[in-house]
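Fill in residues.
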């Protein structure tokens, strides 16, 4: 399944993964060990336990562009508007704000 490195203010914060059951987000151990680390979202407080959801977490879904920008992304790719994880990977590498979503390819980063 697909995975993404989630960065917060340029630091590796965790891994978001699409699984057979839905989605899982796990904070990075080094990120958690740093007392200055902040959660990527108030809905995803810092914890060493993985977050699991049958649907894409609303925080990450909210990073996906809307309106004409979403139309541009779907028109220029073969990604369906319903494939929210693929849209997240495509459109959110350089988001406005503190969070970036970097696709992880099999065998390493990008």
């Amino acid at each position: 399944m697909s995975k993404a490195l989630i960065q917060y203010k340029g630091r590796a914060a965790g891994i978001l993964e699409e699984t057979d059951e839905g989605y899982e987000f796990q904070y990075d151990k080094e990120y958690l060990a740093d007392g200055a680390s902040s959660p990527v979202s108030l809905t995803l407080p810092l914890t060493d336990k993985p977050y699991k959801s049958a649907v894409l977490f609303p925080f990450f879904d909210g990073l996906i562009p809307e309106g004409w920008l979403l139309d541009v992304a779907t028109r220029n790719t073969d990604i369906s508007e319903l494939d929210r994880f693929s849209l997240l990977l495509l459109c959110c590498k350089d988001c406005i704000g503190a969070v970036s979503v970097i696709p992880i390819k099999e065998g390493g980063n990008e």
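Residues 65 and 75 are 13 Å apart (CA to CA).
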